[in-house]
Specification:
The protein is an alpha+beta fold and 534 residues long. Helix content is 45%, strand content 11%. Pathway: Sulfur metabolism; glutathione biosynthesis; glutathione from L-cysteine and L-glutamate: step 1/2.
């Protein structure tokens, strides 16, 4: 029997459906961060420095690097309509291709053929204190997890609702307290629901069921061989999000299921202060050079590998937990989305419309407080889906009882339907309902999922992941090169790049003080009082 839509969701949808309040739905913001490796024409990692023509990786707001010099990250401004953000992401791609020469952008989440670990270049941000601490942090990641894992790419989806919408809900529901606190705890409630249902995103959009054999560098695994150079699991959706991708045993149980923002911040603050003997054995310096920021479980809060994070835009030099503590949650960042290798931007507008429905559902729906037992169940459901999501008859657990993935997924989509209807009413079209229908088709037929399409495409290339990924990357590169930026667009990006280079030079020229003291001051702001001042 299907679970009905909750009373809270019904009331909130009815409130927002009124002509007076419906415009609030269009005032939230969306943004995308897309990671992608620079590769050579043979599909191997390009290890040259970040192209100067793309600007400063430290100060260019749209084009930066993530872990490696070779791992580009394209960042869109936050926009009220995700379609606008995707248009801007497209423009960034087209500009980048004018400066990459024979290089290409890798079209997959799982890496290309990587050189020996020592030859993978760590991102460099210059000699300012801010730039150096970013570099040292990445040196620490190399020590702790190896460089190969840091070359995995993903899509981060940033999402917020209008602050006026949160204020409306607080007033209508007669909830006392500061508006900032209500908004923050409402985002935490969204995150609780996200953890309950995010396995569905992995089934619908996971696109990394295979990887190059050499990626594992001899690590033990339980994958099947598709060919000499390719490992996979026949029913996997996202090996990127499995224990073969982002994993860290030191972080096990680090942030238990949390019911308040304070609990989340306290857990992260403890982890940044908590010594970890294997990291202590590595030390913070080697031959006088910094190799990691500290020897604790986390160097900084962002080292915590999470599928979703509460976020607040930080000021220069500010720690993420400081920003959350002083100004509350501003938006959430969804971090579990694979790069879709069949989409030029790594994500489609149709997928983005569904994410908007899904996240609004998580935000408006009833979100009971969670427990360690439920947290374990959520983790297991996610883990099963990323490795076996397309297996016929796969059963998940809900409240201790078994339920098939397909039945639960279809039930969830039924509950999401009125949210999609409301968003379409606000727009005056049917784009959200259309995306919903596409997801129903995937649940009824696993062969229509991106992960199934990837397996099929790899088989068509002789079972070689590398051959499929290289062919796909070349096709997408040709598409972008066939649509170069207009003169006006090119001038905009060139000006942005030059401005960012000057900004970095000015930062370095005006730098004062000692880096050792800077890093000491930075570490000192993890005091146990950081989350207890409110």
């Amino acid at each position: 029997m299907n679970k009905p839509v909750s009373d809270l969701l019904k009331r909130r949808l009815a409130l927002l459906a009124s002509p007076a309040h419906r415009p609030l739905l269009s005032k939230g913001l969306r943004g995308i961060e897309r990671e992608t490796l620079r590769v050579n024409g043979d599909g191997r990692l390009n290890t040259t420095a970040h192209p100067r023509a793309l600007g400063s990786a430290l100060t260019n707001p749209l084009i930066t690097t993530d872990y490696s010099e070779s791992l580009l990250e394209f960042i869109t401004p936050a926009e009220p309509d995700i379609a606008i953000a995707l248009e801007k992401l497209d423009a960034i791609h087209r500009f980048a291709y004018t400066e990459l020469g024979e290089q290409m952008l890798w079209s997959q989440s799982m890496p290309c053929r990587l050189p020996p670990e020592a030859e993978i270049p760590i991102a460099w941000y210059g000699t300012s204190h801010i730039g150096m601490i970013k570099h040292v942090y990445r040196r620490g990641l190399a020590l702790r997890y190896g460089k190969s894992m840091q070359c995995i790419a993903g899509i981060h989806y940033n999402y917020s609702l209008s602050e006026d919408l949160w204020k409306l809900l607080q007033i209508e529901e007669k909830i006392s307290g500061e508006a900032q606190d209500f908004q923050s705890e409402s985002y935490v409630a969204l995150i609780r629901n996200f953890h309950r249902y995010s396995w569905l995103l992995m089934y619908l959009f996971g696109a990394s069921p295979a990887l190059s054999t050499e990626f594992l560098r001899g690590r033990p695994h339980q994958l099947d061989s598709m060919s000499d150079d390719t490992l996979y699991l026949p029913y996997a959706t996202s090996l990127r999000m499995s224990d073969l991708g982002y994993q860290n045993n030191a972080q096990d149980g680090l942030v238990p299921p949390y019911n308040t923002l304070l609990e989340y911040m306290s857990s992260l603050s403890r982890a940044v202060r908590q010594a970890y003997p294997p990291y202590e054995a590595l030390g913070t310096k080697k031959n006088g050079d910094w190799v990691q920021i500290n020897t604790n479980v986390l160097q900084i809060e962002n080292e915590f590998y999470a599928t979703i994070r509460p976020k607040r835009v930080i000021r220069s030099g500010e720690r993420p937990v400081e920003a959350l503590c002083s100004r509350g949650v501003q938006y959430i960042e969804v971090r579990c989305m694979d790069v879709d290798p069949f989409e030029p931007l790594g994500i489609s507008l149709e997928t983005s419309r569904f994410l908007d429905v899904f996240l609004l559902f998580c935000a408006l729906n009833d979100s009971p407080l969670t427990s360690n037992a439920e947290g374990h169940e959520n983790t297991e459901n996610f883990a099963l889906t990323v490795k076996q999501g397309r297996r016929p008859g796969l059963a998940l657990r809900r409240g201790g009882d078994e339920i098939s993935l397909q039945a639960w997924g279809l039930e969830l989509l039924e509950q999401l339907a009125p949210v999609a209807t409301l968003l379409d009413q606000q727009r005056g079209d049917s784009v959200h309902a259309n995306s919903m229908q596409r997801q129903i088709e995937k649940l009824r037929d696993p062969e229509q999922t991106p992960s199934a399409h990837v397996v099929e495409a790899i088989r068509a290339e002789g079972g070689s992941y590398a051959n499929f990924a290289l062919k796909q990357s070349k096709q997408l590169a040709d598409q972008f090169r066939a649509r170069p930026p207009s003169a006006q667009e090119a001038d905009y990006f060139h000006t942005l790049a030059q401005t960012s280079l000057l900004e970095q030079e000015n930062m370095e020229a005006s730098q004062i003080g000692d880096f050792d003291q800077f890093i000491s001051d930075y570490r000192s702001r993890t005091s146990s009082q950081i989350c207890c001042d409110k």
